[in-house]
Amino acid sequence: MSENTPVLEIKDLSVAYQTPTGSVEAVRGVNLTLYPEEIIGLVGESGSGKSTMAFAVMRLLKGEAMVTGGSIKVLGKDVYSLNKKELRQFRWDQMAMVFQSAMSALNPVMTVEKQIFDTILSHRPQMSRQEVRTRAEELMDMVRIDRKHLKSYPHELSGGMRQRIVIAIAIALHPKMVIMDEPTTALDVVVQRSILDQIKDIQKTEKFSILFISHDFSLVAEMASRVAIMYAGRIVEMTDSHTLKLGEKHHPYTDGLLRAIPQLTSEDVVIEGIAGNPPDLRSLPSGCAFHPRCAVAMDRCKSEVPIPHPQSIGYIECHLYSEEGSHV
Ligand SMILES: Nc1ncnc2c1ncn2[C@@H]1O[C@H](COP(=O)(O)OP(=O)(O)OP(=O)(O)O)[C@@H](O)[C@H]1O
Ligand SMILES: [Mg+2]
Questions:
Q1: pLDDT for 215 beyond 90
Q2: CA 230 to CA 26: how far, in whole Å?
Q3: How confident is the model at residue 179 (pLDDT cuts 50, 70, 90)?
């Protein structure tokens, strides 16, 4: 594996939930490449398929959810070709995930220490207790929680501390890739900010890559170098976080999301949402799935599925950017 082997390479991935009322196409032909030590942001409205994609990468899809096409490689290995034993060693060791609403994922009847120890020892049974303790203390230092809290139970800690413990557990085994699914959403803004600063610091010292999932564009722009924008199961735009502002070339959906952020004008705070709702994934609109909500939709958008049009960084999947639509 060379230094530039992507830590994550998703090709043409599709995932569907089989339900009694039909197949919900939650992820539809997604491509994404995450490089060593890179942070990519993944944004999109609720229900756009962000968590489904993350679970597919971790091979943690449950029950009715199924990968229906494409491939996922982590550190050059096809995640779906690993046998159970290999997968058990690979997950958490090489790829880890901080789950949405992770704070409640801690075991309420186990001390923090026990939970960190169990995670480490289940993957590194040969490590001595002293080595494990040293790593546990190092992790506590990294997430800036007093080591004395190794002896605490989750309910004795604040929400922010619990979330930082979850992050510490996720990185305990030095994974090369960490998916963080809304890692700070339940927390107040000040706590959020301090945790994100810590994540950035830790990421630099531990040198892993992050797929950072969030609703919040301002957080994503701050954390990530590149940003993927997801709508109805597709990544409709891949862009550079520096250009993530109004007035730059974007997918109309991205512009809509940007306009939905409170904008501080000279006198007022203006918020404009995107009209309408995301589509029913059981019966998607024809053509571009965004066309019924798009203020600049053209006739062809109703019938022709747009292809990705390369931009200086990334691409935009919208007819406005095809050669014929060169008025933009
Ligand atoms: N168990 C399930 N059965 C059927 N459909 C499901 C199931 N879980 C999720 N879905 C559907 O799959 C789509 C994608 O859901 P997903 O949770 O991946 O979105 P998300 O982008 O993570 O949203 P959020 O921002 O709210 O976390 C949604 O339309 C959702 O209704
Ligand atoms: Mg989600």
A1: no
A2: 11
A3: very high
The amino acid occupying position 315 is Y
Query: Exposed, middle or buried, 85 (CB in 10 Å: 0-12/13-18/19+)?
Result: exposed
* Structural domain spans, the chain: 8-325
- Is residue 302 a contact partner of residue 286, using CB atoms and an 8 Å limit? yes
Among 13, 30, 48, 231, residue to substitute to test ligand 1 (most atoms within 8 Å of Cβ) = 48
Q: At what angle do helices 129-142 and 159-170 cross, to 10 degrees?
A: 130
Q: How far is Cα 245 from Cα 315, in angstroms, rounded to an integer?
A: 16
pLDDT digits (tens, 9 = 90+) for 232-253: 999 999 999 999 888 899 999 9
State how far the Cα of 215 lies from the Cα of 274, in Å rounded to an integer.
14
Radius of gyration, alpha carbons of the chain:
21
pTM: 0.94
Confidence (pLDDT) at 274: 87
Distances (CA, A) of 280 to 24, 92, 189, 276: 8, 34, 32, 12
State the virtual CA torsion across 272, 278, 279, 280 in degrees, nearest 10. Answer: -150
CATH number for 8-325 (one of 3.30.460.80, 3.30.460.10, 1.10.238.10, 3.40.50.300): it is: 3.40.50.300
User: What whole-number distance in Å separates Cα of residue 53 and Cα of residue 107?
Assistant: 25
Contacts of 234 (CB under 8 A, 6+ apart): 28, 29, 30, 289, 317
Q: Which residues are near ligand 1 (CB < 6 Å)?
A: 17, 19, 24, 26, 44, 46-52, 64, 100, 215, 281
**pLDDT (tens digit per residue) in 264-287:** 555 666 667 788 899 999 999 999
Q: Residue 234 C-alpha to ligand 1 middle, in angstroms?
A: 13
